[in-house]
Amino acid sequence: MSSLGLSLRQVRYTNTAFWRNPASAFFTFVFPLMFLVIFTALLGSGEVDFGHGIVLDQATYFVGAMAAFGVISATYTNIAISVTFQRDQGILKRLRGTPLPPWAYLTARVLHAMLVALILVVITLAFGKVAYGTDLPSGTPILEFLVTLIVGSLSFAALAMAITALIPNADAAPPIVNATILPLLFLSGIFIPIGGDTPAWINTVSNLFPVRHFADAMRAGYLGNVHVHGTAIRAFPFDWSDLAVIAAWGVVGLVLASRFFSWEPRK
Description:
By secondary structure, the chain is mainly alpha-helical. The protein has one domain (3-260). It contains 10 helices and 4 strands. The strands form 2 sheets. Strands 1-2 form a two-stranded antiparallel ribbon. The longest helix has 31 residues, at 58-88.
């Protein structure tokens, strides 16, 4: 079997194993929706003021934010934690002794995570449409939305592989992974809206990392032409420099993962 065939077969195996754990699969898809309902319920029918006359209702804001959160959760958090557990259980070490090429296994993990991320985004946007009446991506912005989804998924997956080198054992995986991503989720406007009155230091810090740029790019692609005071305008223009920052972090993660990724349990 070719290397590509082995990768696709591994994707199928990983997907089968994922769905045969219904509890894990259920909460993977419910988690973003739970946050979406909680945040919109707590903040009510408020609005987010981005300045320059651009005002967005909270529900629309959080639908886009939770779509971005779902991608990060599937490609960064889940990969980093699950791969670390498999490493400590000796599964990765045994895989190294099989004919399956190492890159084929890692590629399969990333492809499966991207598939889960895509399903999460579709479910979140559909839920937002049904529950809150938010719009769906359409026209030219949908291409930008899909490009952002692909680049972001690959970059966060590469960073997930890289962070496993810092995790000493499986028990330490959840706290270390959450410690590296949760602060950025708050500072980058995923959990707390970032508008025109945000302190300058938050913008400075968040712009250094890929989460803020990913959230902004996802929002621009998701919203496209939105209605502001009854007029359809491109309130959130797509900035390709956001993708450049995300891709740069992905390259850093790929380099670190290729250098420090471990297939054997730590002593």
